[in-house]
Structure formats: structure tokens, C-alpha cells
Amino acid sequence: MNHINLIRKNDREDMVLALKNEVPYLFFKNIDETNQVIHGFSTKLGGVSKEHLSSMNLSYTRGDDEENVNENYRRITKAMGVEYESLVLSQQTHTTNVRTVTRADRGKGIVRERDYEDVDGLITNEAGVTLVTFYADCVPLYFVDPVHHAIGLSHSGWRGTVNKMGKKTVERMQEEYGSNPKDMIAAIGPSICIDCYEVSREVIDEFEKNFGPEIIDKICYRKKNGKYQLDLWEINRYVLMEAGILEEHISVSAICTCCNQEIFYSHRATQGMRGNLAAFLALKE
Fold it and tell me: In what order do the strands lie in the sheet with 130-135?
């Protein structure tokens, strides 16, 4: 466990590895430096799940034993230093729906039934609530407004990205909390890289329709087989800057879930035989 070798796509190390109670997780330096939140991103290591779900599967919908998932949550929350009962879980369906969360939602999806669905983003300005979203190649987006003490956490696959989930989350934080994008700190978490993410021309057409033809050469390249390699990191960085977040306030993990299959679940690498990773974000009490 002490010899986890991450393959990174740049040498900046915006995101670093922590190991507590034999449970590894990653965190962003720029978010940690706000000193206002607890946050992290899980790996597939340090849990109790078996076989293709081994071992830190954090999904109840991948065929795992419920008690295994509960134990995994107990382990990861203890390692990160958040309360198990404080978790509020998304219910992701590749939408751009963002839900405002309060302390009244504590435990939903983990120790209480969720009374919502089709939610890919969560925002709050209340301490004692831990936002949780799920991944296995899609892009985690973290947001911290250190002025208004508000946070957001959003899941952005290609559908969320083409529909500008990052911008939708920023706009909701502006509406709900008066957040100024120029004050916000943002991060793009571990997800599939351009080298691993082949898509069809139809997907590229969707991006061209929503972003304009001038950006296409910056976010993908065409291969001899007629397919394209798509850069979800770069397009999400563009979306965050379009939303008004300053370039110097955006960190990119540059860590690919598909390149690091020993450490992360990857839907693309395993043709769907996998568990779920999770992103966590909470305001400190």
C-alpha cells in the first residue's frame, strides 16, 4: 500500500496522495490551501469488496453486498475525517441538474432514502454536510467559494461536459449564495485522459454545436480509423473559465483512471466490470 505509483500526464502534481488507516485517497493542494473544507477522491484500494469490485467499491448499484459497501464508506470517511452520517449522495443520470443540499439532507443515500433523482451536481453552504458524487472515468468537478463559504461537487461525463455542467454549477452557486466566480477555487479530478478516450464523430458534432468549430482542434484529434480522441480535461477547463473562474484558480489532476487501472476503476478499461470511485467535499465545522 505504501508503494502506489501514479501515472501522471504532467509534472505539476496539483493532486497528491494521502494514506490514513491503510486507506489511500487523493486531495488537491489548491483546495486544501483554502483551509475551509475537507475533501478527497477515493481509489479502488483499502476496502473489503471482492472480485471485480475489489476493493473500495462505493456503489450500491454494481451488484456488491450492501454491508461491504457500508464498511467501505466507514473506512473512507474515517480516513478523510468526515462523519459517515453526514454524507449526501448524488443520483447520477448524466444530467446537468444541480441540487441545493442542507443539513436536513444528511445521510440521504447512505443511512436514509433519497427523496430526489436525476441529480449530477450538489451544492451547499452549510457545514456538517458531505457532498458525494461517483466516477469510473467521468470527470469530477470541485468548487469552493472561500468568500461566501459555499461548495459544489459535480459529475461531468461527455454528456455533462457538452452541456457545460461546470458552468451550470457555478451559475447555481451564484444564484443561491451570491458567489463571484472570480473568487472561486476549482479542480478537475481523476478521469479518463485524451489518449484513452476514443469517441465517434457524432460526439464531436455535439461539442461543435455547443462550443463552436474554433474550439474543436483544441479538444480532440482525428485518427485514421475516423474516430476521435477527446480531451475532457481541457474542455472542462474551458467551461470553468467561460463561467468566470480564473485560470490560475483551476487545478487539473492530470491523473487518468484508465491509465491507472491498478489504482482506479475504469469503465472503459474493464467494459463495465467495475465498482465506483467517489469524490467527497464538505465545509469544515
Answer: 15-20, 23-28, 37-42, 277-283, 130-135, 87-89
Instruction: Report the alpha-carbon distance of residue 225 to residue 165 in Å, rounded.
Output: 30
Enter the C-alpha cell of residue 224.
485514421
| Predicted structure pTM score | 0.98
Distance CA 168, CA 88 (A): 20
User: pLDDT 10s per residue in the chain (285 long)?
Assistant: 557 899 999 999 999 999 999 999 999 999 999 999 999 999 999 999 999 999 999 999 999 999 999 999 999 999 999 999 999 999 999 999 999 999 999 999 999 999 999 999 999 999 999 999 999 999 999 999 999 999 999 999 999 999 999 999 999 999 999 999 999 999 999 999 999 999 999 999 999 999 999 999 999 999 999 999 999 999 999 999 999 999 999 999 999 999 999 999 999 999 999 999 999 999 999
3-class secondary structure, 228: strand
Q: Whole-angstrom Cα distance, residue 285 to residue 283?
A: 6
CB 76 within 8 A of CB 23: yes
Reduced to 3 states (helix: H, G, I; strand: E, B; else coil), residue 83 is coil
Helix or strand (DSSP H, E) at 67: helix 66-80
Contact (Cβ atoms closer than 8 angstroms) between residue 106 and residue 88: yes
